[in-house]
């Protein structure tokens, strides 16, 4: 974005009412069933936006913009094309003034992000930057891991316990199916925590921002489904030895595990990501 365009965008955004006024004017009270907790601190939202830099060229995809706090920050930090997906009709109306002020750089789509292929949301490179609704955050992430070829970078806010799982190492209590899937597809980095008091209304838990950057396609499975099946079986009965937990997938789990150099008496949390990938590789053989 040129300096002149950036100045014009900033000037237009500066004329918008404070987010609290936008929320009040449109009756945009946060609704629990939608997992809504609004982030209004512009310093904090700009910190999140900067973590995803460079925001231009290409498309920045935001899910659950609500009144537009993070959306404003993305535009101020240089995004030239933001696609914001919102399921709440009230927020669609509340975002209209922001859309006008953005000078054609913001597209707002009403709908469920779970139903939208990421490749349909604008030209690459695509970055997903979002304060995700808590109730669908994990489901959205898994969907995007399947579509990693269509994503350059993700900077996402989750409940802290979800990020604990994303970065967890083997032989720790938080290590599980999500750890394996995310770490196989992406490099995963915890960036910073966000206190409940930063939100309106405050959630009962601390949140965390994480960056997930897809690995080169040649370094990851083309199809994640076998890895999903193996990890679901192994961690679904994590107290069992693998020879028992995997009995529903392999006719002779002991022979399969031994053939891969893995201990049949090991438990799921003892296997590395690479070892799970090896197991997935023989699932249909």
General description of the model:
The chain has helices spanning 3-14, 19-25, 42-51, 69-76, 89-94, 96-101, 137-146, 160-167, 177-185, 225-236, 242-245, 253-259, 273-281; strands spanning 38-39, 59-63, 82-86, 106-110, 126-131, 153-159, 186-194, 199-200, 207-214. The chain is of the alpha/beta class and 285 residues long. The longest helix has 12 residues, at 3-14.
Write the SSE topology:
Elements: H1 3-14, H2 19-25, E1 38-39, H3 42-51, E2 59-63, H4 69-76, E3 82-86, H5 89-94, H6 96-101, E4 106-110, E5 126-131, H7 137-146, E6 153-159, H8 160-167, H9 177-185, E7 186-194, E8 199-200, E9 207-214, H10 225-236, H11 242-245, H12 253-259, H13 273-281
Parallel strand pairs: 2-3, 2-5, 3-4, 5-6
Antiparallel strand pairs: 1-8, 6-9, 7-9
Spatial order of the strands in the main sheet?
4-3-2-5-6-9-7
CATH topology name of the largest domain, in short, is: Rossmann fold
Estimated share of beta-strand residues: 15-25%
- What would you give as the CATH superfamily of the largest domain? Vaccinia Virus protein VP39
Largest sheet: 7 strands, mixed
Instruction: Compute the number of helices.
Output: 13
Rg to the nearest angstrom? 21 Å
What is the percent of helical residues? Answer: 25-40%
Number of domains: 2
Q: How would you name the oligomeric state of the polypeptide chains in this document?
A: single chain
Q: Which structural class do you get from the secondary structure elements?
A: alpha/beta
Silhouette: elongated
Give the rounded overall mean pLDDT. 93
Question: Which labels suit this protein?
Answer:
13 helices, Helicase, Ruva Protein, domain 3, 7-stranded mixed β-sheet, 285 residues, two-stranded antiparallel ribbon, Rossmann fold, 38% helix, alpha/beta
């Amino acid at each position: 974005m040129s300096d002149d365009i950036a100045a014009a965008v900033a000037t237009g955004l500066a004329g918008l009412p404070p987010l609290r006024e936008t929320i009040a004017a449109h009756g945009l009270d946060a609704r629990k069933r939608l997992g809504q907790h609004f982030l209004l601190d512009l310093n904090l939202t700009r910190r999140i936006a900067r973590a995803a830099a460079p925001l231009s060229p290409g498309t920045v995809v935001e899910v659950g913009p609500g009144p537009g706090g993070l959306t404003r920050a993305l535009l101020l930090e240089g995004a030239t094309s933001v696609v914001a997906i919102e399921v709440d009709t009230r927020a669609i109306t509340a975002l209209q003034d922001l859309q006008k002020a953005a000078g054609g750089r913001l597209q707002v789509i009403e709908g469920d992000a779970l139903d939208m292929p990421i490749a349909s949301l604008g030209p690459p490179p695509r970055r997903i930057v979002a304060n995700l609704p808590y109730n669908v955050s994990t489901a959205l992430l898994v969907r995007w891991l399947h579509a990693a070829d269509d994503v350059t970078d993700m900077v996402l806010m989750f409940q802290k316990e979800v990020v604990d799982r994303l970065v967890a190492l083997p032989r720790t209590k938080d290590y599980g199916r999500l750890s394996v899937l995310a770490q196989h597809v992406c490099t995963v980095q915890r960036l910073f925590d966000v206190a409940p008091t930063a939100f309106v209304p405050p959630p009962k838990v601390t949140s965390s921002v994480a960056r997930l950057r897809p690995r080169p396609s040649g370094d990851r499975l083309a199809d994640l489904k076998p890895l999903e099946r193996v990890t679901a079986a192994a961690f679904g009965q994590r107290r069992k030895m693998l020879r028992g937990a995997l009995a529903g997938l392999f006719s002779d789990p002991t022979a399969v595990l031994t053939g891969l150099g893995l201990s049949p008496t090991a438990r799921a949390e003892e296997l590395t990501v690479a070892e799970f990938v090896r197991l997935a590789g023989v699932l249909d053989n």
